[in-house]
Amino acid sequence: MDMEKIEKAKKGDSQSFYELITERKELLYKTAYLYVKNEQDALDIVGETVYHAYRSIAKLKHPEYFTTWLVKILINQALQALKKSRPSWPLLTERDMAGLEAGLAVEDKLDLFEAVDRLNEPYKTVIILKYLHDLPNSQIAEILDAPVGTVKTHLHRALKKLKAYIGGKPNHEF
Question: What are the DSSP calls for 35-77, one per residue?
Fold first, then answer.
């Protein structure tokens, strides 16, 4: 069903495009909010993402990767917004990190939020995409325009940094 909508949207069907976006609006908003920690900024990023996607959907080469393509646009918009507005990442909230925190004690959850928040780009992005969006490495690679091996390396390094931080090195810079 989505493939049919995607093909229609590629041919200029605004209603199909609207339906595709509506089905993914929560994913888009949550992802944007993880980056900017501000409702209005997240909504602005989603708006910019939808605008860019609408303008370029006719160029979408692999309709089966529509969501991956859309998230890639969103991440690029979010990173651009962050570069313009702030030099550092905001602290992640407990609600945003529910996917990473399962089974942890409250104090460990807070440490995890702070640790993920302190990760440098692209480590933070691969952690968010892998553990919050539950994406496979191949889709993360597609979003980041990077080889799967690079994604695996970034995941490995990010997890190592998170373990080091949570393991008792709170002043360690990532």
Answer: HH--HHHHHHHHHHHHHHHHHHGGG-S-GGGHHHHHHHHHHHH
CB contact at 8 A, 132 and 94: no
Cis omega (within 30 of 0) on the bond before 147? no
Q: What is the C-alpha separation between 23 and 88, in angstroms, rounded?
A: 31
The model carries a pTM of: 0.65
Averaged confidence pLDDT in the chain: 81
CA dist 52 to 15, 18, 55, 74, 147, Å?
16, 13, 5, 9, 24
Indicate the SS3 state at residue 4. helix
Q: With CA atoms as reference, report the closest residue to 46 among 59, 57, 30, 68.
A: 30
- Give kind and range of the element (H or E) at residue 162: helix 148-166
